[in-house]
Amino acid sequence: MNPVFASLPTTVFETMSALARTHEAVNLGQGFPDDPGPEDVRARAADAVLNGWNQYPPMMGVPELRQAVAAHYARWQGLDLDPAAEVMVTSGATEALAGALLALIAPGDEVVLFQPLYDAYLPLVLRAGGVPRLVRLAPPHWRLDEAALAAAFTPRTRVVLFNNPHNPTGRVFEDDELELLAGFCRRSGAVLVSDEVWEHVVFDGRRHRSVLSLPGMRGQAVKIGSAGKIFGMTGWKVGFVCAAPELMAVLAKAHQFLTFTTPPALQHAVAYGLAKEDRWFEAMRAGLQRSRDRLVSGLGALGLPVLPCAGTYFVNIDLGGDPGVDDEAFCRLLVERHRVAAIPVSAFYAQEPVRHVVRLCFAKTDATLDLALSRLAGWRR
Ligand code: PMP
Ligand code: GLN
Q1: In a mutational test of the pocket of ligand 2, which residue from 16, 21, 234, 361 has the highest number of ligand atoms less than 8 Å from its CB?
Q2: Which contiguous run of DSSP H or E holds residue 126?
Q3: 170 with 312: CB under 8 angstroms?
Q4: What is the mean pLDDT of residues 308-331?
Q5: Could you tell me the domains of the chain?
Q6: What is the pLDDT of residues 26-59, one digit of tens each?
Q7: pLDDT for position 68
Q8: 322: CA distance to ligand 1 center in Å?
Q9: Is the peptide bond before 63 cis (omega within 30 degrees of 0)?
Q10: Which residue's CA is the closest to the ligand 2 atom numbered 9?
């Protein structure tokens, strides 16, 4: 057996969702909305299943979707992508990440990653033979700084795996941090793989900036997106990869032997959805922002300090710097005794974990959030 997977525990998301079911808890752990997703997009998929083509679509994705992705990113992020050479459809961002890492890493190459890190990243890098170089971000600001980057980059750095907006911290990195990172990539020649699945879930008037628009990075960066996050239907598993043609050529080779393709009905529905009016996307953000504010103010009323949240479905509670505090024990107690499931942020660290931060998902109905808050009030007492 391959030791990377043989030694791997089940992901914290699966574990916490299973505990939530056992204890009939309100599940604010794994990130998925209560809302079923836009009805017109779902109707499009249903129609395409019944009346459309259900055999293999083209390996790179159906042309309508590749065009829709390019048009969508031109409209929202000012990108100029050639749909025929620079856009590929994958089975979720997870496949896109796996494919990009397999395609770009040769055994022994160094890969820069940022902790806290999304759970899939490290095993995929290790399985591809990469040597991880971890940059540690710490609360409350989780900022990228020059000294930490300088310590992580070496002449053997080939790939940088970045995530913005960032899960689990809810941070949207500032322009100066993005430019700092781009500078390190340009000087080392490393390819910047950027997981931008949360690009539409940004609040307080923020706009997402893709790595593809950073100076000098157009030919040296890979952008990854996910319809699951854009439309709040996390089970859909339709991802997008955007990169310059030379990079895309090799990314496509990895994709052809991972999944080869993605269900065509979902691709057609996503193409339709991406062309929806700006209003729909603005309303989606506004609704999630209201949910964020509801949970944050409820937690505040209970005296629980919350870290800032600029994007994603997640807010983080800061349990305080007491050395006795343990986020995992806290989450276990919370789900077993008080029936609220959350995610301990230490699970996102491979080294030197932060143990006093707990992630809660607010992409829920008011009733779900209020029930969770009333149970948390019991814990508080
Ligand atoms: N990257 C990040 C940062 C995520 O949060 C998620 C899912 N929550 C994914 C990738 C996976 O996306 P998909 O479901 O499209 O595979
Ligand atoms: N990305 C989701 C989260 O952060 C979980 C994805 C999964 O369960 N694999 O909660």
Answers
A1: 234
A2: helix 121-127
A3: yes
A4: 92
A5: 3-30+279-380 (3.90.1150.10), 39-276 (3.40.640.10)
A6: 999 999 999 999 999 999 999 999 999 999 999 9
A7: 98
A8: 32
A9: no
A10: 13
- Compute the distance from residue 379 Cα to the ligand 2 centre, in Å: 26
Distance CA 215, CA 211 (A): 9
Name the token pair of 46.
């249903």
pLDDT digits (tens, 9 = 90+) for 125-166: 999 999 999 999 999 999 999 999 999 999 999 999 999 999
Element (H, E) at 146: helix 146-152
Q: How far is CA 323 from CA 306, 318, 349, 356, in A?
A: 19, 13, 17, 9
Neighbouring CB atoms inside 10 A of 47's CB total 14
Token digits for 158?
């080939």
Ligand 1 mean position, distance from CA 161 (Å) = 14
Tell me, using a 6 A CB cutoff, whether residue 167 lines ligand 1. yes
Residue position matching structure tokens 């997977």: 5
- Residue 372 in tokens: 């969770």
Structure-token pair, residue 216: 């000098």
Q: What is the model's pTM?
A: 0.97
* Atom of ligand 2 minimally distant from the CA of 13: 8
pLDDT tens string 156-179:
999 999 999 999 999 999 999 999
Residues pairing with 221 in the sheet:
192
Say which DSSP state 220 is in: S
Among 12, 28, 30, residue to substitute to test ligand 2 (most atoms within 8 Å of Cβ): 30
What are phi and psi for residue 54, nearest 5 degrees?
-115, 20
